[in-house]
């Protein structure tokens, strides 16, 4: 069997087990492994894959691993990378569920979780700025993501509407305005 399957499973399992904060906190680690170390994707392909994973329904980290695995080895690759990403969380949640009642009121555990929160914000902010740089978001066009975020947050506009409008705007810009 192709060595890719064992290597990709181990890679995504390691990412899944050592990443706190969800899928967005995984972005820099996945990028480091997949783009920089293993060279499975180019930087541009990775940014595109992140965009597709974000706009797809489901868990972002699983979506991202599925798209990477599929790009590398089609359906089998997608299954292997998805299992590698999901299995650590499943096992950890299973263990926590088995023993949660013993430490749910522990002040030390509560303090640890309060301490982790700011670090998770930073883990999400850094890849956001890096992806903005890769997507060529500058001061002249940074109003677009800000306006989209405000429309979703303040006006309650559906993210699906934002995605459709962004796709239409990108098409019009690319077809007619950026000649």
Entry keywords:
mainly alpha; 179 residues; 7 helices
3D structure, described in words:
The protein contains 7 helices and no strands. By secondary structure, it is mainly alpha-helical. Helix 1 runs antiparallel to helix 2, helix 2 packs across helix 4 (60-103) and helix 2 (23-37) packs across helix 5 (107-134). The model has no long low-confidence stretch (mean pLDDT 89).
What is the arithmetic mean of pLDDT?
Answer: 89
Residues in helices, as a percent range: over 70%
- Give the number of DSSP strands: 0
Low-confidence stretches: none
Order of secondary-structure elements = HHHHHHH
N/C terminus separation: 48 Å
Strand content: under 5%
So how many helices? 7
* Classification by helices and strands: mainly alpha
Radius of gyration: 19 Å
Q: Tell me, briefly, the overall form.
A: globular
Q: Please summarize the sheet with the most strands.
A: none
**Oligomer classification:** single chain
List the helices and strands and how they pair.
Blueprint: H1 3-18, H2 23-37, H3 43-55, H4 60-103, H5 107-134, H6 143-153, H7 159-177
How do you describe this structure in short?
This protein has 179 residues and is mostly helical.
């Amino acid at each position: 069997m192709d060595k890719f399957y064992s290597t990709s499973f181990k890679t995504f399992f390691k990412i899944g087990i050592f990443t706190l904060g969800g899928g967005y906190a995984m972005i820099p680690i996945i990028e480091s492994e997949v783009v920089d170390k293993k060279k499975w994707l180019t930087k541009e392909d990775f940014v595109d894959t992140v965009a597709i994973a974000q706009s797809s329904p489901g868990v972002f980290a699983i979506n991202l691993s599925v798209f990477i695995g599929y790009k590398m080895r089609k359906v089998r690759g997608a299954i292997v990378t998805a299992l590698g990403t999901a299995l650590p969380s499943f096992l950890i949640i299973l263990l926590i569920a088995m023993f949660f009642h013993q430490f749910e009121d522990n002040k030390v555990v509560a303090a640890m979780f309060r301490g982790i929160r700011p670090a998770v914000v930073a883990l999400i902010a850094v890849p956001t700025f890096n992806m903005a740089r890769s997507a060529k978001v500058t001061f002249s066009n940074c109003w677009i993501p800000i306006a989209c975020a405000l429309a979703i947050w303040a006006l309650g506009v559906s993210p699906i509407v934002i995605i459709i409008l962004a796709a239409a705007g990108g098409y019009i810009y690319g077809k007619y305005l950026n000649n």
